[in-house]
Amino acid sequence: MNDRFKFRAWDHAVCRMLNHDEEWVRKLVFDDVAPLLRSRFVLMQCTGLRAIDGTLIFEGDVCSLEASPFERDTHIGVAEFDDGMFFFGDEHVSNFGHITILGNIHANPELMEGE
Asked: What distance in Å separates the CA atoms of residue 44 and residue 29, rounded to the nearest whole number?
């Protein structure tokens, strides 16, 4: 499967991330799930990109971003989907070559404090 078409979901009921290969995520993406049940989850799509350690980057991931390993100016941003493309803040994801995942906005909201 193309990484870009993988999904994961945050389960508000148990405060846990469900990975793309878990049954609930497949049901949320492909089945007609009751709206009440759907409100329990936040569905997030994969950007198709990988962090420097090879981990897939999904919507909602809080990342440390550098244009290259030689750049000293580091930005913190959240992967977001808008108008058919993925962004970190106002920057398109392709503008960054060195990305490290720090956490995600659901499990680690403290990462975005002060932003």
From this structure: 10
